[in-house]
Design brief:
The complex is a heterodimer of chains A (214) and B (223).
Chain A (H helix, E strand, L loop, with lengths): L1 H18 L11 H30 L3 H33 L7 H22 L3 H15 L2 H12 L19 H27 L11
Chain B lengths: L4 H18 L2 H21 L6 H20 L1 H9 L2 H7 L2 H30 L7 H25 L9 H26 L5 H26 L3
Helix pairs in contact in B: 1-6, 2-3, 2-6, 3-6, 3-7, 3-8, 6-7, 6-9, 7-8, 7-9, 8-9
The chains are: A mainly alpha (214), B mainly alpha (223).
Chain lengths: 214, 223
């Protein structure tokens, strides 16, 4: 049932993005890419939060299922973060003329990729399953300390060409109503896709790999 | 025998210094790595002035990667010699963590005392704001020591050591690395207007130390 709902919502979002959303001022039809890029970026951050949350719960009460959820949330988050980075780079090329220029938002997603990569490298490097689960949970929480810096400090350190967030500095929503509805639907859709994939990965039987539970 | 945390920290620092002086490879490897990297840069530049932005970035790249060459050994050397288990039996976790953190900071301070004067001479760097320059280096090294001690504890028991420490360390230390480069650039040009960022680095250092303290018990006391 859930799969059918996600399928219908995905089809509706794709249709709306290509046939309903009006061209944006200054961006034209390139704005269509934003309806994939923004939800991908949102899920990349959500995966990090979920991974850290389950890591915290694992440290408090070391149940193997919590490590399993944490590691797979982060491994899947890496895929979404890579897709968000690639779609962002293409959007950047189309609108700013370069794939990469270390804009604060690009730096943020790059650091997120580094954290995901470091977490998975640590898991693959520790052989003992108990120690692997504990060390990676500690790292997931320790790396979480960078979030306030990436969200609040980094954008103030460097000039950004990135379009303003949907909620601007005055706290109001500055977006065409049709675009806003489609964007919210795309965000919900991408979140559901992520959660469905995560559920599948957590339920999948172990193969003795470094993502598997102790 | 029950020790206070302070007494335990003092003992751990004393033990680290004694072991460090007895087995000098860690110190010399880190210092030689720093000097060799600096010499490479100086040779490549051939006396040309790359400007304050590049000079500031070069200093921090040298400091970070040289410190990574030494700070990752604080637990792995103990694991290799078999003394880690003894320390686990007799050493309270917080005393071990902060003792090793203070020792790491001392090690990095010695590194800076060797590297920074050579950097100033070989790259012909003029510092216009010595107070800011010293404070940034001090705060940056404190951050590396705070984060590095916990990260070093994470890498114990891993099958890969070379490179893993840097991979784990870099994302965590980036909030120190980026503002430190900006502040060092200001110290070189004399535009010392970024004291708020220096406060930010110090605050982040403290957050790293507190978080390391909270998380270290989970690594130290195994089930």
């Amino acid at each position: 049932m859930m799969k059918v709902c996600i399928g219908i919502l995905t089809a509706a979002v794709v249709f709306a993005v290509f046939f309903v959303v009006p061209p944006a001022e200054g961006l034209g039809y390139y704005v269509r890419l934003a309806f994939f890029h923004i939800p991908l970026a949102w899920v990349s951050v959500l995966a990090f939060f979920l991974g850290a949350w389950w890591a915290l719960r694992y440290l408090k009460s070391p149940a193997p299922i919590l490590d399993r959820r944490s590691s797979r949330a982060i491994a899947l988050g890496l895929v979404f973060a890579v897709l968000a980075t690639l779609s962002g780079a293409v959007f950047s090329k189309l609108t700013w003329g370069a794939y990469w220029n270390w804009d604060p938002r690009q730096t943020t997603i790059f650091v997120l990729l580094l954290i995901y990569g470091a977490y998975l490298t640590l898991r693959s490097a520790v052989r003992d399953p108990q120690k692997r689960a504990r060390s990676s949970a500690v790292y997931a929480l320790f790396s979480f300390l960078t979030v306030p810096f990436l969200v609040f400090i980094l954008p103030r350190l460097y000039f950004s060409l990135h379009p303003s967030p949907i909620l601007n500095g005055s706290g109001s929503i500055d977006m065409d109503p049709v675009m806003l509805v489609v964007l919210v639907a795309a965000l919900v859709d991408m979140t559901l896709i992520y959660l469905a994939l995560l559920k599948y990965l957590v339920a999948r039987p172990d193969k003795g790999g470094y993502l598997d539970e102790p | 025998m029950k020790l206070s945390v302070w007494a335990g920290i003092r003992l751990v620092v004393h033990k680290e210094i004694t072991a460090g002086l007895r087995f000098r490879a860690a110190w010399t490897a880190m210092l030689m790595f720093a000097v060799t990297s600096l010499a490479c840069l100086s040779l490549a530049l051939q006396g040309r002035d790359p400007g304050p932005v590049i000079l500031a970035a070069l200093l921090w790249i040298l400091l970070f990667f040289s410190s990574f060459a030494g700070a990752d050994r604080v637990f792995t050397d103990e694991a290799a010699t078999g003394t880690l288990e003894v320390l686990k039996i007799y050493g309270p976790s917080q005393a071990v963590l902060f003792g090793k953190m203070i020792y790491s900071f001392g090690l990095l301070f010695v590194l800076a005392c060797v590297l920074v004067p050579l950097y100033l001479i070989l790259l012909d760097v003029t510092v216009l704001d010595w107070g800011l320059f010293s404070a940034v280096i001090f705060a940056g090294l404190a951050g590396i020591a705070a984060a590095g001690t916990l990260i070093a504890a994470l890498t114990v028991g891993s099958s890969v050591h070379n490179g893993l420490f840097s991979v784990l360390m870099f994302p965590v230390i980036l909030p120190v690395f980026l503002p430190a480069i900006g502040l060092t650039q200001q110290a070189l040009t004399g535009d010392g207007a970024g004291l708020a960022y220096l406060g930010g680095i110090v605050l982040y250092d403290m957050i790293l130390a507190v978080a390391a303290s909270l998380l270290f018990d989970y690594l130290w006391y195994e089930d």
